[in-house]
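Report of the visiting student (M.T.), summer placement. My assignment was to run the structure pipeline on a short list of targets and document each run. The first record concerns START domain-containing protein.
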Amino acid sequence: MPDPQPPSKEVFDEYSSIPHPDAFPEALKLLKKFLTDTTIPWQSNGTKNDIELYFYSPEDPPLPAPICRGVGTFPEGLTAEQILPVMHQIACRKIWDERFKLGFPTLRYSRKLVRFYAVQKGVGEWVVIVSPRDFTGYSGHVKEVGEDGVTRYFYLQTSSDFDDLPPVDGFVRGWSSVAGWVLEEKPGEPVKCSYIVQFDPKGSIPSAIISQVIKETPLCIYKVRNFIEQRGLVPHVRMHDEFPGQLRQEYLTIEDAVVNPETGETLTETGFQFTFSWFGAVGSFDINFDEKWENGVKIDIEEGKVDEDFELKSSKDRVTVTVKEAGKDKKLKLVVSKA
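After the run finished, the structure tokens were exported:
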């Protein structure tokens, strides 16, 4: 049967009401507990690719799968806001998470909170050992500045049930209490990253595969780091900047580099295309891109009129968008790619 498809773009022309207002805050609270509670007896699962791996198996009550955690750092010079879009953009995740099959937002609640649908691949092609798992829930961002001088960026997902997202034939509906990233930023130090997951896969999965998943999942930190090292930064609007207007959609599409298999020569570089649409409000914001893009970016205007509704000003690593009075409440849409 065909894979589930994302909703029409018109769904994102308004912010929806949240049917489970406590779900995301409770998941954030749980993530913070796993991050800071020194009484949790984390057990080492070794170190791989400079990522420290841990797991925790509570006895009361016992869990279907151990909680897993990874801890690592990103190269100096990278900021949390540059790393975040590689974590949350679906097109990026399809590259750095080999178990990820598909995913998309289904509703938007605010600039930083959406409802999501996602599918993890099963195991086995001719003989299905593990069925694919799908998940529904909330996905969002929180930024906090601690008394210790550390700025923490939380990006997490948590499961919830929705009447209009029933189980899908061929998939087992899994449950994630929390799947959360924490980026810790302190002046003069590289960004520290923790990735913590507590989930119930539901259904039947061999214990050997569960053990493998628990050990490999925290290595997503390394895979995100490797993505940036190999492909560079992706264009984005900083998640935690003040944004004038109401976001409709922001998404990335990626065309992989083409390499000559005989010589290893790169024929075409990785192509990023960033689409950003919103209802205009008077004010400015930046679309950021990799400063290594020597020729800057190409901007296609799909909705709105430049100079009438907004102005564009390019610099070394960003395009500043300034919306005028004429652009207020209008549908505006830009597509940004490497020049």
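The first strand starts at residue 43 and ends at 48. The mean pLDDT is 93. I thank the supervising group for their guidance throughout the placement.
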